[in-house]
Amino acid sequence: MKRKITLKQIARELDVSISTVSKALRNSSEISEDTREKVQAFAKLYNYRPNNIALSLKNRKTKTIGIIIPEIVHHFFSKVISGIELVANKKGYNVIVGLSNESFDKEVINMEMLANGSIDGFILSIAKETLLQQDYHHFNETISQGMPIVMFDRIVNDIKCDKVIVDDVKGAKKAVAKLIENGCKQIAIITTKDYVSVGRLRTQGYLEALEDHKIHPKASLILKVDDKLVSEDYLDVLENEIEQLFKQNKKLDGVFAVNELYAITAMKVARKFGKHIPNDVQVIGFTDGVLSKHATPSLTTVSQHGQKIGEKAAELLIHKLEHEEEEERFQTVIIETDLIERDSTK
Amino acid sequence: MKRKITLKQIARELDVSISTVSKALRNSSEISEDTREKVQAFAKLYNYRPNNIALSLKNRKTKTIGIIIPEIVHHFFSKVISGIELVANKKGYNVIVGLSNESFDKEVINMEMLANGSIDGFILSIAKETLLQQDYHHFNETISQGMPIVMFDRIVNDIKCDKVIVDDVKGAKKAVAKLIENGCKQIAIITTKDYVSVGRLRTQGYLEALEDHKIHPKASLILKVDDKLVSEDYLDVLENEIEQLFKQNKKLDGVFAVNELYAITAMKVARKFGKHIPNDVQVIGFTDGVLSKHATPSLTTVSQHGQKIGEKAAELLIHKLEHEEEEERFQTVIIETDLIERDSTK
DNA sequence: ATTCGTAGCGAAAACGTTTTCGTGTTAACA
DNA sequence: TGTTAACACGAAAACGTTTTCGCTACGAAT
């Protein structure tokens, strides 16, 4: 077991100083060609690589990005990571991920763990619990220590950082408009409680689309699911609530769901009630993941381009890291959604 | 913007030496109660946190684990990460992830990027391209530099490291035995080319199950899909091949697929041929992900417990990191699979 | 012969810690 | 009074780099 070789060891072996070795390896003109070649040959032979930690300490840059997300077993989030990793890697950065599990405490702990020098900046999406408690001191403290943050998807507006979001309102509006154009008269929305910003915004889009087409919203058509519960029978509860929705609205002929799971569950329930999709009921979901693609019938969805969101977030962060001299101004980038039409709509 | 405070700054402010501050904060008995309290109060006020990078350099430990996986947008892998993160975090470790995208070069580059001091050890699953080329020098080099590796799922045997695998043979065997017990006479397997070890092993399990029940394997019932192609029409190609399978075997009444996608595609094709599931054809998949759970009908699968694999891998690695004095011996832990029965079997 | 410039290299500081090994002061003891 | 022990603290090294500055020696210029 040969430990990694250091400058000091090379210096000792070749009987020169550490500075000489360092300079020789970086092709400094201070060093004679003789010495340079000698050092470089030796370094190559022993496969010398500068120690990253030492470099980080010296440069006070780690070339590492910290990602904090609520969960990783989730198509959207892993797509985002994928995008971040892509551009980060291209620019010589590593990514280190922390999971909050939707918990405020874990979010705080994770951030503290990383903020002490391990990383240069954060890319994150806020935990539900944090959104609920509306306690954002950890973000503000991190920022005030000079560590930039980029938020995506689940954001809160009055924090001084760049943000990458999807136009939830517009995306939802597009989807619901599609349903209306396809002839749906009674369109339900299955959404989350309002404290989840994306749920709230998509609901808003739903309402706006109705309004645009002079349709009066009906309270019984709006189902706000409480997704705080992560219990085992969560799925049953969900299914039950959706069944109620169908029972209360016999003439339901369109469903807009704010995520994949709600959408396919709605399809399942519809089938249970003997409705054919898309002939009797048309369904559109939000977030284009594996489920939508491979469901039967395949699901028409609003794609939010998770990969692109990740790429953009990484670009914003790295730009900020490498142009600290620029005056501070923060942008909110909106990634356009696309409606991907499949077989759950006509 | 107040930069993070350091020992040196505290020392200067309180007019004591750096060592005194350090000791005071670590409650050394060398320091008088007076000074200790003074220092701790000051440190708390300014929210002092030791700089991780400096600690890493000093201790030559980063308390960080490097993960290299082929892709992250994949239920199994994200489950594994989830498990790793869980136990890593509990033990004060961070995780830093690199994606190989199934490419040999990216795998090598990623490992080199992390091996220079950024992490203490690796947990990884080998890229397909690497398995194909059978070039494992980067693993061996890393190990010979004293950096432990734990491999999971896609492993290669003759590398000196701990391994966590699923009993692919046994899992497959269980599944196929189930089909046989359920009355299937003509059982097909949809698998990958043999260089992917998990595909090979699951095929082996399939054959063993048949043999156990005195059933002669038929070549036409074995479909080895080439999943090197990641093209856009990959799905179509897959579907086509499976259609051929059904056409060539009119009396096909059972399908064992080595992953979710193959399984639900098989269900799709079966439906297309007018076969009812599970009455006419029963299907079992491998890897219990979202697709299986939410497919219609829901899919009976062999669950490989990705989370548990991750947890075990992390435990092995951390143990090795924290007990370097122990004699070197490497274990291969086998995580048992479970057959999760759902609606695609009788 | 003296000054100057320059090529080639080394010493040392700095990044932020921890830890070992002094060192000075005071109190206790012979 | 002189010795010792305990106490409280500081200096410095070390982790592995990069970089600034200084030094030496030698050839060229005056």
Automatic annotation (TrEMBL), chains A, B:
Keyword RNA-binding present in the record's keywords: the answer is no
Tell me one GO molecular function of this protein: DNA-binding transcription factor activity
> Which UniProt keywords are given for this protein, alphabetically ordered?
DNA-binding, Transcription, Transcription regulation
* The keyword Cell wall biogenesis/degradation belongs to this UniProt entry's keyword annotation: no
- Name of a matching Pfam family: LacI
Matching entries from CDD domains are given as: HTH_LacI (cd01392), PBP1_LacI_sugar_binding-like (cd06267)
The HTH lacI-type domain covers: 5-59
What top-level branch of life does the organism fall under? Bacteria
Domain (HTH cro/C1-type) ranges: 2-53
The cross-references to InterPro entries, in alphabetical order and at most eight, read: Cro/C1-type_HTH, HTH_LacI, LacI/GalR-like_sensor, Lambda_DNA-bd_dom_sf, Peripla_BP_I
Q: Which PANTHER family match?
A: HTH-TYPE TRANSCRIPTIONAL REGULATOR GALS, LACI-RELATED TRANSCRIPTIONAL REPRESSOR
Q: Under what name is this protein listed?
A: LacI family transcriptional regulator
